[in-house]
Structure formats: structure tokens, C-alpha cells
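User: Continuing from earlier, I have the next pair ready.

Assistant: Great, send them over.

User: Here they are, in order.

Assistant: Folding the first of the pair now:
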Amino acid sequence: MKRFWQRKYFAFVTGAVIGLLGGLIGLGGAEFRLPVLVGMFGFATLEAVIINKLMSLVVVTSAIPFRSVSIPWGQVAIHWPVILNILAGSLVGACIGAHYATRLKVEWLNRIIMVLLVMLAVGMLLGHTMLVTSVGEFSLIPIRMLFGVICGVGIGLVAALLGVAGGELIIPTLVLLYGIDIKLAGSLSLCISLPTMLVAFTRYSQSGAFAVVRRERYFLTWMTLGSLVGTALGGLLLGIMPTDALILLLGLVLLISAVKVFKH
């Protein structure tokens, strides 16, 4: 009985910590949650992936309204062309990634993602202002839209294959390609991540491993409660977090993600 309550307690705490990160930056937290599910709670890899996807959906869905306290809906809605631009590619990428998720060897994909994450981290930490200015010099809107679709395909592909929300790639894309403020980019990222994840998630919902959701419903309930508390706190802290500090935090998250991909 004691172990049962300890497991629920740790599920709540880890859900809250990762949810805080999601609400503050605009991430699903999948890359941080997966090692916890496998290493701390002992889930099999495929079962951990299923739980991870479900919890990422919880964080992304709940973070959108919680962040509206600091980032009003109007600021998000006015950028609907940007959301649709990236979604046009990410939904296609998610479909492709979900189709080949169990067939494709991801060693080379991991290496490419690692290099990409490091480059994005360096850009965010050292030269985000210069990069936004230089990218903003594009005078042809169709060129920017084309880059947006291409980036979206890559984001959707990565999100489906690796089971992440893709915020680590979406936010830097919004900042560097469109020159959007990082706090607003976090909310736009969630709006892009949600439908992208739903497309990929429908495939896994038919998997036999999805039975873990019913078997671990109490565990999932406590982790969900923790995630909701975390995303609520993250949404509230967003209003007082300095932009430069948020950029530094995202840069560190990108570097940590790159290290995790490298180890994998």
C-alpha cells in the first residue's frame, strides 16, 4: 500500500514539474517525461511512448487556456495565417511519420535532429536578435510561406516518429523565421502542436499497447492532475518571466534535448 501511494505521489510531482515547463515555454515535455516513465516507473518502451503521448496531449491542451492569462486570445488569433502555414506542412509530416513509425530506423534521423537542436540552441542563445532581423528581410511572402511549409513537414515528421509535441522545433521556427516574440511563439506553438499530435496519436490508439491506458488509469489520473497544476503555474509565471530569461531557458532545453537524442 505504501509503495502504491509513493507511486501516485511521484506521478503527481513529475507531472507537475514537466507541466510547469510546458505552461511556461509552450512544450509538451515528452522528451523529459519518457526517461522518467521508463527509468523511474519501469514501463516498457512502447507503453511509455503511449503514456507519454497522452500526457503530452494533456499538457498541450491545458497550457493553451492557462497561458491566455498572460497572452490574450486576440494576440494568438491574429497570427492564424502563421499557424495555418506551418500546419499545412506539419499535418502531412505527422501522417508520413505515423505511417513509418514502426518501419523506419531512426538512427540517422536522431543524428540530424541532434545537429538541428544544437544549431537552434546556438541561434536562440547567441544571435536570436540578429537572426530575426536578417530573416525578416525576406520581401516575398510566398518564399516565407514555402519555408514555413517545409519546416512544418519536418516538425510533423519528428513529432510522429519520436512521440514529441515538437515545440522545441516550432518555437525557434516561429522566432527565427517569422520574427515573433518568444512568449507569443509559445502559445502559437501549442496551437500547432495539438492538431499535429492528434493526427499521429490516432494511429497509436489502435495499437495493442494502448491497453496500458486502461490498466494504469489511476497512475494516469495522478500524473494528469499534476500536469494540470504545473501548466496552470507555468501560465501564471509567464507574465512575470523576463523575455531574455525565457530565451535562455529555451536554449538550455534545446541543448538538453540534443544531449538526450545523442545518448539515444
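And the other member of the pair:
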Amino acid sequence: MKKILVPIDFSIPSENALKVAAKLAIKNKAELHILHVIELAESLFGTEQFNVNDEQILFFMKMANKKFAEFLDKNYLKNISIIEHVEPGSTSRIIRNVVEKNGIDMVVMGSSGASGLEEIIVGSNTEKVVRFSEVPVMVIKKELEDISFKNAVFASNFNFESMEAFRTAKAFVDSFKAKMQLLYINLPGNKFYSTIEIQDHIKNFLDKVEVPISFENIEIYNDYSLGEGILNGARSLKADLIIIPTHGRKGISHFFNGSVGEDVVNHSELPVLTLKI
């Protein structure tokens, strides 16, 4: 983790994320990329690029750069290698572009969550980034006094497609010398399995990734939905970090089936780390 990106919009949640990103940058001796996106109507600048001679865009750019410089005048950013980005466009698209062009290893974002029609129809920029990001995304809601995570939960179905995400999660948790508990959500109906069946399934998974782990670190939690099960299970385990592999569903599949990762990110008060599989 040598390059960390944190998008900011000058809100309290984005500053909470910036503080966490700064601590992660110091811990990993990483380069911190800080991005502010000026969200303008696409009719002003086109879907792919904007006209740099447009006086209205240049005005917004100058104002944003001034506010950006004031916002970054923080003591906790001292002695960190910082790369600043101010770009006009669609937030989620610009974030993806910055990640790709700069070889970003992790995105840290603030979020206040969403509810009601906004959650169903519009969603948040954070949810969109979680859905499409090819790199790990950590979502922060509240200010964290300390980022020395002690008890992380890795929630998964423990199919073999999640192996790489598991390895990434374990490496991240190990870097904090923290405990990682494995969480399986058992659902009613035809998705219900016995405890023995689930334990055998997880054991096969762990044998495949060649990581010995005690069954004492495996929690099987019964609930009516994956999202609620992960939140309730993490609460029961007194976790301070939730880690989830996510498919990043798109289009019609996303609309009808939803995304567990986005749902958890939207409703969790705990930090959530999503890993693309």
C-alpha cells in the first residue's frame, strides 16, 4: 500500500476519511493523493473532457483550488508526501481515472450514508465507487481516535473466488497485529445450511488458501438478509472493522439484486473495507 487516494468534498465525513488516510500513509510510508472533484453538469464540459477555455469552468476551478489549499492546511498532514488533484466532472468517473492513472493501491472515502428514495434511485458517490473500484475501498463514517484495528470481521460466503480477497484482508489485518474473525451469514429457506456443513465448507476454503485458523475464530450468524446479518454479526462480535469481498454488480443485475457491499457501506457505523473479486 504505497499510494492512497482520498476524495474530499470539504464535509465532515470527508475530513474524517482524510485523517484515517493520513494515519495509514504514515504507517505505510505511503504517498497520499488528495482529490477534489468539481461536479458540474456534463452539458458544460462534455462526457469525456471539458473545454479549458470555458470561463465558467475556470472560475469554479480557481475557487476550488483556493478552498482546497485552505482545507489541506492541517497539522496531521505534515511530513506526508501529498499529491493534489482538482478535477471537474463526475465524481465516481474521476476517481476511477485517478486510480488508474496514478497506480493507486487503496481509496479511503467518507460517507454519511443514504436513506429512502436517495438510496434506491440515486445512491451516493461512495456506493458507486464501491461498486466499480478495482482496488480496495475503505469507507469511514465517524472520526476515529485510533486506527489500530484490533478486531476485524471478514464476512464472506467462502467460495474459492474470494481467496485473493481473503489473502488481502489477512495481510491488512496482520499489519495491525489484529484479530480477524470469519463471519458466515446463514439465511432461511433453500439457502440454509447446518453448522457442520458450513464448518466443512469454511475448512475446505482455509485448506485451499493454506491459512490455519481456529474454529474459535469462525462465527455462523443466522439472519434474514446478508446485509443485516453482516451488520448484526459484526456488532455481536464487537468488531471495529468490517471487511467484505464484493462483486460490484452492474446494470439490471445491480438494480434487482442490490449489492451487499454497498448496502453494508451505506448502513454501517463501523469502517468498512471492500475488496473486489
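Worth noting for the second one:
The radius of gyration is 20 Å. The longest strand covers residues 31-38.
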